[in-house]
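Bug: token stream looks shifted between consecutive jobs. Job 1:
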Amino acid sequence: MTEKPAIIVDLNFHPEQVREGLRHAFSGRGVINRLDPANDGADLSKAAYALLWKPKADLFQRATGLKVLFSGGAGVDHVLTLPGLPDLPLVRFVDPTLTTRMSEWVVMQCLMHLRQQVAYDRNRRKKIWNPLVQPEASEITVGIMGMGVLGSDSARKLKAIGFNVIGWSKSGKPVDGVEMHGAESLDAFLAKTDMLVGLLPLTPETRGIFNGDLFSRLRRSGPLGGPVFINAGRGGSQVETDIIAALNSGRLKGASLDVFETEPLPATSPLWEMDTVMMTPHTAADSDVSALFAHVERQIERYESGQPLQHLVERGAGY
């Protein structure tokens, strides 16, 4: 029986999670787990596949026989900027578990701002009992920038709760049940938006797009008393000095951030101390290791049986 081509697993994840997941994955196939010190000197040249998330710097110099690359997350900007990246098919991680985790986070943040939890937490620390006026979800328009798999699922769930949801993407491609805007109607989109949700991939066009100028165009007359910014896309899409300035000036009433320009967020960042900000450490849609390995196995089976790979990245578009 011919041995299946090997796979390199070069994931900057928790070592025990990767080790446990690999016990039940890639049966009959050689696996080189680069988190295992025993593999430091392993021959990588015969491996046909590599699963990556912030891989070691020498990967592409040593793994010269690769045929397909797999991203360990939904985003691929961390792969596209790797030195020495070979011109090979690159597959994004798309899976219901990842999609659900992201939309849960987005819904949670929208509800927290709707129910004014930031203000209540601030009052609790000061031992202030002060019931606040409570708008309904139907009075709030959530504008989602980035209407791919993650944005579309978030939109469906937000609409089910009662929020008014509109979407924006560069193409303005239709999404069922959602009023969509394209590049030419960004101003109209922003003018309607009370809660702005960022789920954009990181491309040259989206780098720094969430900035002071954009925040100034959000709707200010909504029932929350000011717009809210929520970002779980990519840290490079936001300008944190502008977020801080907008919060301090009242241009933004609040923010929820899962991604940052520099990660981990430096201890010197003012965001740590701002009581108008809710933060999570890039965990809105953590990859489930078992689901990730199963996804890669399915794509390898397709590739080895002559079927086209799914979720291929368009290098020119950046996603």
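Job 2, same session, no restart:
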Amino acid sequence: MTDAHETAADRSLRTTGGAPPDDGGPSAAEAPIPLLEPREGIPPVIADETSLARVTAAFAAGSGPVAVDAERASGYRYGQRAYLVQLRRQGAGTALIDPVACPDLSALGEALSGAEWVLHAATQDLPCLRDIGMVPTRLFDTELAGRLAGFPRVGLGAMVEGVLGFVLEKGHSAVDWSTRPLPEPWLRYAALDVELLVDLRDALEKELDRQGKLDWARQEFDAIAAAPPPEPRKEPWRRTSGMHKVRRRRQLAAVREMWEARDRIAQRRDVSPGKVLSDAAIVEAATALPPNAHALAALNGFGHRMGRRTLEQWQAAIDRARALPESALPQPGQPVTGPPPPRAWADKDPVAAARLSAARAGVSALAEELNMPQENLITPDTVRRVCWEPPKPLDAESVAAALAGYGARPWQVEQVTPVLLAALSAHP
């Protein structure tokens, strides 16, 4: 760690000897500058309580926003836990923390509670950070800021290059971060991910302010920070890829039994469920409902590499589904709590279908005018719900109250209410 801090503009001056790129990124004549090394070098990985205490004190004494990132081992390990946490703050430099060796980072989280946390795609990292005691009270999401500002590509590498004029090496984003020790090239990549995050935040804040959207962005960031942890998904087995091929209730029961058996095995082994058995194999077996392990072995995904004992394990799950009484079989679809699928509206309620069509067209036009994705202007689910059951009386105040009731932020309510009111009034 070091007390020195260098902005992207400073780095550009030091690297090129010329002027820094402006807020809009490098000009066509300027080649983006490869960012190859962290300014202070690769910091040592923090893996003991004494070192963690020093880092906590240094970051508490730092100033300004703190860049935060986390690396998971998706596709390799069970769940979405963090295997590396990266931070950077003015006055503290960069820190790489091993949350396996230091699983409780609540003291660090508390030390940073008053600071603004800068994350890229915050909703992806916040759950695993929460699990180790790190919960922000204020944040700035550079990916969401890019969406609201109308950037066509909002990945971190694209944003750093387009806004700041630097190229990040992204070759290690999908590696197994549970590996120990972590290779030096991976650590370099991880450190560089937070190297320019605060600089990116500052440039995006200026751009949002220029477009008159800074307050909108702050409302979105506050909503993310205040959101409670997501509730566990009901019947997660229904998200098995290829479920559209499964038609009968007993086949659905076989998917459920095999999915749950796979999940138990994956959790026990701490491996990704897909490494235990693929979704395609589950669907193949569920649709075929083989009578025995020999027949199961003939199906795709259950070939000669699978041992007899493992085959019998999967066959047992299928046999459990076969033995269930009709009353215990799952229903074909998930319980519908909101409007029906839009494709069914024309038959169920043609007037509502016309409202939805008009509302979608209006939202699309407004999003284009505001230069942002439609889903960031207002969620499609909110539009569907308001169109399926319009508020009464049908006026601006009622529409605004309905939008707020579905979780729309004040800026969204202000922008979208006139559009939806017009669509609803045209098809009462």
